[in-house]
Amino acid sequence: MLIAIATGLTAFMQFDSFPMLLLVSATTLAIAALVGTFVTTWMTGRIARMNAAAVFIALLFWGWLWGIWGMLLGIPIVVVVKVIAKHVDSMSPIAELLGE
User: Fold this and answer.
1) Burial (0-12, 13-18, 19+ Cβ within 10 Å), 78
2) Is pTM beyond 0.70 here?
3) Cα(85)–Cα(65) distance, rounded to whole angstroms?
4) In the chain, which residue ranges form alpha helices assigned H by DSSP?
5) Is-contact 81 95, C-beta < 8 A?
6) Is 48 strand, coil or helix?
7) pLDDT tens string 33-92
8) Which residues pair with 50 in a beta bridge?
9) Long-range contacts of residues 53-57, Cβ cutoff 8 Å, at least 24 apart
10) CA–CA separation, 24 vs 43, rounded Å?
11) CA distance 77 to 54
């Protein structure tokens, strides 16, 4: 949000137009949303060898539960659960669900 405000103010100073402020701020928010939703999901799935759908659902769940902190902390929590489930025999179905 701070980046959207900063780019919006920069656009307003550059172009001296309120519609350009809104356009630049909206573009910044759209890019941030795309990166946060799709690129983060894809990269986490590749690096942690996790199912991309499970990563996306985890982002939705933890974001809903804790807001922005959930989106930041949710994926590391799910990766830890996957690693523990991989080493505990009784939790192997969970590891298989979260894995590739």
Assistant:
1) buried
2) no
3) 22
4) 2-15, 18-34, 40-47, 52-66, 68-87, 92-98
5) no
6) coil
7) 888 778 877 777 677 788 888 888 998 999 999 998 888 888 889 988 998 998 999 999
8) 99
9) 54/78, 54/97, 54/98
10) 27
11) 12
